[in-house]
Amino acid sequence: MPRQTPPPSEKPPARLSLISRHLAPVYPINTPYTVERLPDTIDTSLLPKTPFRNLSSSSAAPKMSAQPPHPTLLIPGPIEFDDAVLQSMSHFSESHVGPGFVATFGETLSMLRSLFQTTDPSAQPFVLSGSGTLGWDLVAANLIEPADDVLVLGTGYFSDGFADCLRVYGANVTELKAPVGTKPQLPEIEKALAEKRYKAITVTHVDTSTGVLSELKDLSALVHRVAPDTLIIVDGVCSVACEEIAFDAWGLDAVVTASQKAIGCPAGLSISMFSGRAMQAVENRKTPPAAYFASMKNWTPIMKNYEAKKPSYFATPSPQLIHALHTALTQILVNPIADRFAAHKAGSDKIKAAVTAFGLKQVAANPAEQAHGMTAIYLPENVKGADLLPILAKKGVVFAGGIHKEIAAKYIRFGHMGVSLLDPKRPDITHAIKALAEGLAACGYTQGQ
Asked: Taking the complete model, does pTM exceed 0.85, yes or no?
């Protein structure tokens, strides 16, 4: 697509409009609570006025298979997508209750059981049109009733968002927050659970704002021991398909995620798994779910019918996205899922070693609390994201700016999930590390400053 020139009446876009709003160190996010969690001073002049994609042959990343030349998207989602997944999106139009689509959707739901590592027939997968945020609404509208107490483990911007969503539906939320770059520790969680009976506890497995990884296995064991009636809810938007999640073995009650991150399917699908105990909590509600589209009572029979290869209807799904998800899951499950987790960890270790070699620090300082699908990197004191990110973009690499309100201008985020990391034919990661080194040097940074 040729570069588009703004009309004369419009001020030429600033250099940060080169690729996307991810180039801005802080940018507005369209949620009702953004102003409560982002700084008041947001320079929207840095946001793009006209999207375009134009890289010269000298600056573009290596051409990737059948996809048009484009900057390599290495943000914490959406990620780069495999050709076969994108080609699945071009499936001809078909009825959402026709036999072909019903079979595809049914297989997709069954494959999700393998992805989440559950064989419990009482567990229920859901795939709905929407973003990962819709998973919060599913939990808040269906598992929680007004005045229910919920303990939210705070690790950053997205755990704050989950707490906000729960309050909208009337939950009595207690936030147990950790300092930036870390997570609440088991002793303080145990103390909080002992002081009050909670309907649910929520944990953001990887908070995309900080790259902090929360451990689930021991946390779940603690909750089952200290508060066995408390539902264990996991925000896995930035963790499913790159961090281990053993749904049955760890006794989890809900994991909500989205299509566009490590699963490797274009954005537009809210994906979740609920335990039999969670489904029973929905059935035992004293009040109706405080939602219509997000009502699990409306969707449960639809999901069960689709998985049984029976046509069903409540609201129209996206056949093209379901085909893409089917392809992505087929690719993921062709090998043992444990191998995928190990490969993400090994790749992440190499990236983090390179970051350390550059003399840079991570927002998540403790290696045990560092995510394997992304890395949040503190900038040197003399380097600004507003300068560095456009330089990286010119080299064909797109990283994300910071969004945690306490440190937003001080760090950048490097996403390394899915094909960019796992496909040995793709030079994405090697190119990105080289570009980062060159970009820092162009900003005047020398190691050891």
From this structure: yes
By three-state DSSP, how is residue 399 classified?
Answer: coil
Enumerate the CATH 3.40.640.10 domain ranges in the chain, comma separated: 86-333
Length of the chain: 449
Helix axes 319-333, 99-116, angle to 10 degrees: 40
Pairing, β 254-258 against β 231-235: parallel
Q: Which CATH number fits domain 86-333: 3.30.2350.10, 3.40.50.620, 3.40.640.10, 3.40.190.100?
A: 3.40.640.10
Q: 């755990």: which residue's tokens?
A: 159
What's 244's DSSP letter? -
Count Cα neighbours of 224 within 13 Å in the Cβ-side half-sphere: 12
Query: pLDDT of 277-299, one tens digit each?
Result: 999 999 999 999 999 999 999 99
Q: Report H helices in 208-264.
A: 217-226
Q: Comparing C-alpha atoms, which of 200, 127, 192 is closest to residue 163?
A: 200
Please say whether the structural domain 15-76+337-442 has been given the CATH code 3.90.1150.10: yes
The phi and psi torsions of 356 (rounded to 5 degrees) equal -65, -40
pLDDT digits (tens, 9 = 90+) for 161-214: 999 999 999 999 999 999 999 999 999 999 999 999 999 999 999 999 999 999
Cβ proximity of 351 and 416 under 8 Å: yes
Residues of the chain with CATH 3.90.1150.10: 15-76+337-442
